[in-house]
Design brief:
By secondary structure, the chain is α/β, with parallel strands linked by helices. The protein contains 15 helices and 19 strands. The structure holds NADP nicotinamide-adenine-dinucleotide phosphate (NAP). NADP nicotinamide-adenine-dinucleotide phosphate is lined by residues 105, 145-151, 153, 190-192, 196, 198, 200, 203, 255, 287-289, 326-329.
């Protein structure tokens, strides 16, 4: 029986496991996850008010529950064991570790309190154990840098009223922090034109439906082109309604510096002609994409793990954002995982390695506590049972709190 290990239980890892179940019917497959809970970007990246998108976890969870799959939660490759140790135990290992780190702008002031990357900001409002609350002091004006869907998510979560967040899994302490902000303006700033923006129509249009916020365009006369995105922006510009919070779209502004002494006060941008503009801001969220740092000896180069169609080395593969960079929707991972799984299976050899039994022995020898699928389901049940009446779930925001609701190992 060949043994395959997948590192990462986000959509890339789960879809890969699903394809491998079909393509390698004799293989035993283990999915290793550093947190006690699975689903990576679906749990911690998809916005808490987009529960329709998060519903894909039901499909992914069915994969993890399959008999030939072993879920090894609370086990971090790089901390608890090395990648090379894992490769010695399994016939094939796949990195599905995503791109969890923020890209940096590399401009002055990026370390000022009040400046935060989207991985950290989205991680915080999604209750990721790694991401504490950012500095949020009397935020009247927020600047969101970037013209992708993450920028829209951030603007929308900042803008929504309490009633609009009903049914989400946004944590109460997070909501309390956001609701207390004296927010008046959210600037969404792109370095290129409106026609170049990477927003999708549905996400952008949603901003026009919010209760306490209204989108508008800083310079409607400069809107050029007839793409659906530009047409939506023209509609925003023509809407004369007023609201408590304005979401102002700017284009053609390249970030130049975060300005402030002890705390962010403004963001400076330059235009193509060289002129500058300063937008006042007590919070700036950079939504300019993510990077993978790789895993142990499989280091990333320019934010991705170097590979040839998913192959990194003999018996070592990569899929998802760690393979191709931070682009595409959740279903993109399914089709990509199919190609990686086909290649892996074509090259798979049974070396007689111990696989799951060897990994379990290593964990026992090191005194490491594995969270299996049953343990995750206990965490899931506790989160669902703990939900307030206007929330669908109360997420634990620390590993300790997650482990505390699992029956101790027998
Ligand atoms: P993205 O779509 O690639 O957008 C990144 C933005 O950052 C672009 O506007 C880019 O501008 C800008 N940018 C990059 N470097 C910059 C710099 N140095 N200075 C100024 N701006 C810079 O990435 P994303 O928003 O992080 O989203 C990641 C993926 O997840 C995307 O495929 C997205 O569609 C997906 N996603 C989907 C949803 C949804 O469907 N609801 C929600 C969230 C995310 P340029 O275009 O000029 O490079």
């Amino acid at each position: 029986m060949p043994h395959i290990a997948i590192i990462g239980s986000g959509p890339a890892g789960c879809y890969l496991a699903d394809h491998l179940l079909r393509l390698a019917p004799a293989a035993q497959i283990d999915v290793i996850e550093r947190l006690p809970v699975p689903f990576g970007l679906v749990r911690y990246g998809v916005a808490p008010d987009h529960q329709g998108t998060k519903a894909v976890v039901r499909v992914l969870d069915r994969v993890l529950a399959r008999e030939r799959i072993g879920f090894f939660g609370n086990l971090e490759v790089g901390r608890d064991l090395k990648l090379d140790e894992l490769r010695a135990l399994y016939d094939a290992v796949v990195l599905a570790t995503g791109a969890p780190d923020d890209r940096r702008l590399g401009i002055p002031g990026e370390a000022l309190p009040g400046v935060v990357g989207s991985a950290a900001f989205v991680g915080w409002y999604n209750s990721h154990p790694d991401h504490a609350a950012p500095a949020l002091h009397a935020v009247r004006s927020a600047v969101v840098v970037g013209n992708g869907n993450v920028a829209i998510d951030v603007a929308r979560i900042l803008a929504k009223s309490a009633a609009e967040l009903a049914g989400s899994d946004l944590a109460s302490p997070v909501h309390a922090r956001l609701a207390a902000l004296p927010l008046e303006t959210i600037h969404v700033v792109g370095r290129r034109s409106a026609a170049d923006a990477k927003f999708t129509q549905h996400e952008l249009a949603e901003l026009g439906t919010l209760a306490r916020a209204r989108p508008r365009v800083a310079d409607p006369a400069a809107l050029a082109g007839d793409t659906p995105i530009v047409e939506l922006l023209r509609g925003f510009a023509a809407d004369a309604r007023t609201a408590a919070v304005e979401i102002v779209f700017h284009f053609g502004l390249a970030p130049a510096a975060f300005v402030g002494d002890q705390q962010l006060q403004a963001v400076r941008f330059t235009r193509a002609g060289g002129s500058t503009l300063e937008l006042p801001a007590q919070l700036a969220v950079t939504c300019i994409g993510y990077r993978s740092s790789g895993c142990c000896s499989a280091a990333a180069v320019d934010g991705v793990v170097p590979n040839q169609d998913g192959r990194v080395d003999d018996g070592l593969y990569v899929t998802g954002w760690a393979k191709r960079g931070p682009s595409g929707t959740i279903p993109t991972n399914r089709s990509e995982a199919q190609q990686v799984a086909q290649r892996l299976v074509a090259e798979l050899r049974d070396h007689g390695r111990p696989g799951r039994a060897g990994l379990s022995a290593l964990l026992a020898a090191r005194g490491l506590r594995r969270v299996d699928h049953a343990g995750w389901k206990q965490i899931d049940a506790a989160e669902l049972a703990g939900a307030a009446s206007d929330r669908c779930r109360r997420k634990f925001d620390s590993v300790e709190a997650m482990l505390a609701v699992i029956d101790p190992p027998g």
